[in-house]
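Troubleshooting: if your tokenizer reports a length mismatch, compare against these two reference records.
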Amino acid sequence: MCNEAHHEDLVASVREGPPARDRTIRSSRRRLTRGAARAGVVVLVSSLLAACGSNLIYGSDGGGKTTLTWYANPDPPPPEGTSPADFGQPGIAQRCSTDEYDIEVETLPSSASEQRIQLARRLAAEDSSIDLMSLDPVFVAEFADAGFLERIPEDMQADLEEGVLQGAIDGATWEDELVVAPLWANTQLLWYRKSLADAAGLDMTEPVTWDQVIDAAVEQGGTVGVQANKYEGYVVWINALIAGAGGEIVTDTEAGSDAAIELGSEAGTEAARVVQKLADSPAAQADLSVSNEGTVLGPFAEDPGGFQVNWTFIFQNYAADEAVAEDLGWARYPQTVEGQESAPPIGGIDVGVGSATDHPDLALEAVSCITSEQNQVTFALETGQMPAGEAAYEDAELQDTYPPDLLELFQESIENAGPRPPSPYWGSIVNAILNVWHPAGSVNPNTTPGDSAEFVEAVLNGDALV
């Protein structure tokens, strides 16, 4: 008997394969040029879904009321005594359910890459059970280009864009159209221990450079926490360094695999110089080659502390540690080149409607509710993930929870962010970069940027595998 659990097992059984399958899975109605290996995966998944038939369709509860299924990334754990059903995205789903439909949340894997894989494979198979999805902005271009997203009507696009910070809009747009709705926006700041910065003589009210940060940490025996594991988070750092030097990893991304690779530029060299300097310095944390957003937290909290670049959750993360909380400072992301404004990383979550849904009108209505100002505020208070809408930052409760200057810095950082390139081939670009830039200790400004540019181009042209 075919059921949902069996369907998941069947889909999982076709996930493994040669690295070429990591390329964008395009729907047959939009692209007829996929390779034989990718075609095999899509055809097989489609056959499996067809075999399962209506058991995989969530449309109605049998009593005439529609159920919309929302595939969402995991939220942080709720506070003790709070039901998971009332918290985060499930809580939003409850508040946005109506007399006409209920919204049920299915939780995606914790890894953004695994989220992408699960959604892309099911959407390529035209799985109608995906009514709504929470989508990392970095995958929006890929999903839109593949035809996986229901088009948002123009009048609704205008409503969803109104009052939203520009950085969040940029990440939700493809080919000059809003294709998903921003729910929350995220950005990285430079977090620092005030005592160490003071001892080093750094004026943190003025812009600081990566060189200054690293030198100060070395002088005071502290550390600089970054994300340099072999995962997309490391490329977030590389991209921010390149953008901060006035460059881009790739340009003309709407050309798909024919995008212009700019890694070998002077900006790429500046980025590699910063990576090399940190990796070769005593300020590098011992686990640099496997560091991520979580591993950097411990060394930062130990005396004498230091610096870290990390997302907005950091403020609440140290709330229970009074000594660290009182010594916690924040500043705009460091400059790659002195005197040139930094381009902070930007992330967050957008909400889109699956193109194969049986209920597009209801799902679009639900998107408007899910991403409303009040839901953005509530979600920020619950999870520490900041709103995408500017007006939400004026909420009295949010203002009581966060220092006003920190909220202003969040908004400034989002507005002036350096987004990752909106390429439908971003997954392949990331893996190609990691193959050359990882570990950070191997980076050489004289060779790494040029070598990685050549390798990315070869991967996009189908001449190399990752």
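Reference record two:
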Amino acid sequence: MKELLEEIKKCRVCEDCLKDGVNPVVAASETSKIVIIGQAPGRIVHNTSIPWNDKSGDNLRNWLQIDKTTFYDVTKIALMPMGFCFPGTGKTGDLPPRPECAPLWHEKVLKLMPNVELILLIGQYSQRYYLGEKNKSTLTETVRNFENYLPRYFPLPHPSPRNNIWQAKNEWFQEIVLLELRKKIKAILD
């Protein structure tokens, strides 16, 4: 795994497309039991090289009810975005993750983690990629039907503060989905 992560860190495949430069951010270990597949690093993560080191990360840790020490313990949790580098900023927020990363690296990383019990799919990009035809027509419907993807995958919306309105409209997310998610995370980590 160490050699593969070093190879990823040296990746320059989409360098010409990244205005802010290349800085692949991924954290994994052969012993990881949970994999969190997000979208792509934001500007803060790009600048610090620490995955989920922003408000979205705070929200995600709150959803999971785990502290930073546990969250960043790669022997337990791997953090792997769809696009490993910050894609830049567009008119309404960050650009989508670069499409080159997942096909190039994901399978190689996952093959080296035989102990994975659960993969959290954060947002529509990871859900489309991993769920394929089983993905529902909207993120809301995919998340609402999370049980259909267990025991391997657990789809979630992005924990961005921008999604607070979505959460307010979908009370079942807090009442049902997060309760089940927390039970699964606790059972795996205990």
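Descriptive notes for reference record two:
- The chain has a mean pLDDT of 97.
- The radius of gyration is 16 Å.
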